[in-house]
């Protein structure tokens, strides 16, 4: 595969952008090689600057569920842009998107639009603290909630309830308010729970240590514990919202959080985020309440229009069944190929998101996810990349199937995976 133009661009990018990328995982550090510079997408495919095409399973980390350059999104966005792209004033479209989200997501009675998932989580945390008048937050190891200070925290050593910064630049005085416990471990939560806890935040199905499912009773347990202590339960559904079902993970599992964070899919490929919840809680936000949060581009009409059209398409009956059928076929094909090649893998899957872990153990939390062999994943990744299949450049990320993936794409992917597995031995 000729990647000369990507090589040249990467060298130039490194001159002007730290590490050559605007988000770290794009630099291919954990898989090696040259990141491809993408200049076009269409349906299930993306194209790099050398003209190579790839079947895309990143899909902008799940945001692009309809496929690239989806015609209905493009034409709606074009119409919206012709009327002006930002006003810093209220617009009718944002009311429509808010109504659509409230109708779809069980736990949301009111919603505030922001510009990214990070901003949604950061604002939800402030709201939880403001509403409860408490400071502590409990989060789970391996869950990613964007890059706000209080969320870039790792577990302290031993039984320490104080978290420690997971990045330079985060004061220990901020980190100490976040406690990190293992995913799927209710006992650990109980041990660190007290009446200073403003909220427990969780990815109800985790997508950011690879896909990890909540074990039976985990989400129910979190709901019970938070209620018992008067803390809020925050579901970070930035990935799972409108992905696992039209109502997200909370609809699938029948657990209603107090606050829900959204992003990715609801912007149809444009920058957006949202946080919503019970009316009583949401009305603590300014201008009604004392929790301040604002944004120049919040509810941006172009992003909102793209989101509205995307959600409209997803509300069509049969959409999620279709995604499910395709993903089942792909995952079954990968399992069979691994068996045939004698490669040991564990696949975790929920609806149209899944991860392939190169490990023998079942993956239920961060430490078991970390047992996935990084060298094997890197070899697998590069083998597929060179054969025109684009996977996440990290073993701890999810693959996303979208509505644009065709039966032929799935077939071709399975054949390519077979080849990659046989090369791995
Ligand atoms: C992507 C993601 C975020 C952050 O969203 P950005 O738009 O990248 O800021 C937060 N939470 C989860 C679960 C995510 O997957």
Descriptive overview:
This protein has 425 residues and is an alpha/beta fold. The protein is built from 14 helices and 16 strands. The protein has two domains: 4-69 and 317-424, Aspartate Aminotransferase, domain 1 (Alpha-Beta Complex); 71-314, Aspartate Aminotransferase, domain 2 (3-Layer(aba) Sandwich). The chain has helices spanning 4-16, 71-82, 92-104, 117-132, 172-175, 186-192, 218-229, 248-253, 279-282, 301-314, 319-341, 366-369, 374-386, 407-424, and strands at 38-42, 45-48, 53-56, 110-114, 136-141, 153-154, 164-165, 178-182, 197-202, 232-236, 259-262, 273-277, 346-350, 353-357, 389-390, 399-400. The protein has a seven-stranded mixed beta sheet, with helices on both faces. Strands 1-2-3-15 form a four-stranded mixed beta sheet. A three-stranded antiparallel beta sheet has the order 13-14-16, with helices on one face. Helix 11 (319-341) packs parallel to helix 14 (407-424). The longest helix has 23 residues, at 319-341. The model has no long low-confidence stretch (mean pLDDT 97). Bound molecules: pyridoxal-5'-phosphate (PLP). Pyridoxal-5'-phosphate (PLP) binds at residues 61, 116-118, 121, 144-146, 203, 207-208, 236, 238-239, 263, 273. Pyridoxal-5'-phosphate is lined by residues 61, 116-118, 121, 144-146, 203, 207-208, 236, 238-239, 263, 273. It is found in: Cytoplasm. It catalyses: (S)-4-amino-5-oxopentanoate = 5-aminolevulinate. It is an enzyme of class 5 (isomerase).
